[in-house]
Amino acid sequence: MAFLRRISTRQLLGLAAAVAALAAGTTAIAIAATTGGPTPPPKSLDRAVHDALVAPPPEGVTARVHFTDNLIGESVLEGSDPILGGASGRLWATADGKLRLELQADVSKGSAGDFQLLVDGNRFTAYDPGTETTYRGTLPEDSAGKEEAGHDEPPSLSEVQGGIQEVMEHATLGDAVPSDVAGRPAYTVRVSPKANGGLVGGADLAWDAENGIPLRAAVYAKGESSPVLELSVTDISLGPVSESVFEVSPPPGSKNVVIQPPAGGSGANGSTPPSGLETIQANVAFQLSAPPTLAGRAREEVRQVASGEDAGALVTYGKGLDGIAVLELPVSTEGSGEEGGGLQLPSVSIEGVVAAHQLETPLGTLIRFRRAGVEYTVVGSVTAAVAQEAAQGL
Of 30, 180, 277, 350, which has the fewest beta carbons less than 10 angstroms from its beta carbon? Predict the structure, then answer.
């Protein structure tokens, strides 16, 4: 976790975008506009979901895609970046857990290269050309327990209905709307947070009516009709995928970052990560700033991140997407949080801080600054005014 002390805002955003692409890619998610193709017959949501889960997946998927990212405006992003600026690309996936997502750079706009995401089982590799960084790691184990009896059995209709009821305790689910995604018959459902949704208005999800493959995902800001993030299929075919497709390596000389998400929220060696204000204060070499409330939100948790000389804290306030997270880390002698790498973030005034930078997006705000040898990153699905109030309160 030492890279946390050196990661810049550009790298932080690149990592977040890579994680988003990973989350979409590992389920072969893609989006497309209606093309006038076939639509399936009407079904209730529970029936449509159940049929998707019990349908046998195809041997492989090959698709042309287009990724749209409207989080960052052109005034902030310099040049062409396939992750932060959007791009066209290709996707391959197999039923045995292999996936490759390639977003092709626009070299005419000075792009550094193509974004590549490779997944093989629970291992992943993502190359971000904007920072010339390769992220490698493993996906978390299934906390439900893979060895439980009947784990591989498809869920019954009653189990699907129970799962939908659990989701509806926190979100509003629309009907399964018959649709057409890249020429494939599909069902589309809108998911919207019921409370504490922050700036997130909702998401559209769609899946193939014949084989259950996820085919559509789009995230919307509150009050907006156009998606902020979109990965769209322009052409798709089903069938075997050659093994050679997955024989791709990041460019030589790229920086390497290893990410090992703990399984089930556990810490190193399966232990629970240290938490609690007094415990974490004893483990870090600087004075934590963790007031009981921040921007009208009560402090929820103080958890340690990294260890040794890198030890810092993640302090959370509020509940749900409307909450605020504060990452506090010691300033590295190598320098951390340096801007650049294709980003020009506007400055914001924070009392007692020489320089602070702010990134405001339709889905949230990030503010980063240093004070007395500590670097603070304030982030949440909140407006810039709320994020600034939180930063002022530290």
Answer: 277
